[in-house]
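Re-running the complex after MR caught last week's input typo. The corrected sequence lines follow. Everything else is unchanged.
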Amino acid sequence: MTEPQTEPTGPTDAPPPASDAAPPTDLPPTDDAAPPVIELRNVSKTFGEVRALSGVNFHVNRGEIVGLLGDNGSGKSTIVKMLMGYHHPDPGGEVWFDGQRVRDWSVPRARSLGIETVYQERALAELQPVWRNMFMGRERRNWLGLLDVAGMRREAAALMLGHMGFTSSAVHPDNMVQTMSGGEKQGIAITRALYFHARLVLLDEPTMGLSLSETAKTLDFVRSIKEAGRSAVFIDHNIFHVYPVVDRLVILDRGRIAGEFARSEISMDDLMERLYLVARTGKLTE
Amino acid sequence: MADETQLATTPGPVTDLPPLLDPTASLRRQVRRNALTLATLGVALLMWLVFIVAAPEVFLSTRIYTAFATTTPLFAMVALALTLVVITREMDLSFGSVMALSMVGFVKVYGWTGSVVLAVLACLLVGALCGLLNGFLVAILNIPSLVITLGTLFLFRGIEMVLISGRPTVLRDPEFDWLRSLLTGKVGDIPNQVLWTIAMAIVLWIVLNRTRFGAHIFLVGDNPTSAQLMGVRVARVRIATFVILAVVAAFTGMMSAMYIGTFFPTLAEGTGALLNPIASVFIGGTSVFGGMGSIVGTFIGAFVVGAINAGVVSAGMDGFYTELFFGLVIVLSLVLQTLITRWMRR
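Corrected-run output:
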């Protein structure tokens, strides 16, 4: 391993935006020298009699979006929960963050390191206005220790205009989240994660139950994670949603990693074929 | 989406006022945001007009308002604190028993030490402990609050009755005078109870709307799962709201006993004591489903309930009309609440 990296330091650690059409690369100037943002080494997870993960090695580089594909029961959600800090690896498995081993792995620890999760649903408080959701759990206060409501409203408005691309005067930071579309809601969740310097955004089936145009909007927000120089893991069944926005694809099958591809190495058709093959035989090639 | 990276990575102050904050749209938005409170105010004014038309000689003189101003605060303050609990999607039915049990703490400690100050502290401490127990049962053991606080309603009342053997205690020693005048005296023509209620409304408004704890109350009532994942300490927030309510209940118990000059063990027992605060909260537009509610609404709601109590009898109507009015106002308010909420969500 290279020298341990320091903790996220805020705005300065974000590299310039990369075009989403660009080939998957690590971000200059650290390039090859930079350790992955997160790495699971030889991780297994057993629940009673069931072995959900066995000997998994998984990593996400800086500025990289990794698609995690696999059938039901393949271990996708166990990996996500492991990355969230919700599960601890069985003895012998290790979690590394920024080139340093993290032993006290937990949800608060993962959050403090900048790992944010965006779910398919229930990520927002629907009866509350946008600005309250944007600052959920991290409300900004003034010198009196009271909430800086005006500041949070203004900031939420700026984010809605700048990052989320709202222009209509009908959308307002005071609007109840319930009045917004599914894609807009995911936009809020992703924007929130980026705004608070998430290093790694875990997208857990973020397009589930969304209409076509809402899905497109959500995928745009996923691209914005990369443009902001952050990393993401995109978990979904639907390869049509995952393939266009990721740099690398990792295929899980029955608790182990069946294979991985850079997107540039594999076409969508080829990927589909291999996924069917894995589901039938557990192997990527015949 | 040109400058999104800059926005996404710079949580500093934004200097340009975005066109989203268009002042022409802001009035409509203000109305929409406060629609529930405005509706409550409308119901209150409408009812007041009905009373004035029904009995102008009573409702255009000040006497009725003085009478009303001494009784309403006793449940208004409890209602204000109950609002916080209801916003977290919980309910507390035990506050009447907490009032009485806390007064046992007051009477006992005064008996042992002869110190009024210690008695006051003991009263508030007993209240806090009752709230802590309620909060623990609800937030840690996850027992539905409506059911468990029905249990503690009887439990606290039972402990109280046993400890005090069901006997009233006269509180007319001159040592109590300063406390009595502090809690129930007058400033000019205004009873101190009203001033305490206004002060409490202001403090709780600030707590709910301008503190991180208050923000978390809304989030816990709206979506506890996501609040938890975003780092809100959900159980702690719930317990805190129960403790605040119980301490406020202890305080009003003391105020009520000082006003009468005697602590009756049946203090705040019965449906009236239970119903008045709860009705005030719901008339005030706080949602039964959590996540929404307002201190100003409850404040107005309490005065609506108080006006019904005082007004019906003073207007020369039969006492039975109280229930009719109560029913009408509660049903009307809830219908309005539903319609307005639907409109707000559009």
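None of the earlier attempt is carried over here. Confidence is low (pLDDT under 50) at residues 1-31 of chain A. The longest strand of chain A covers residues 50-60.
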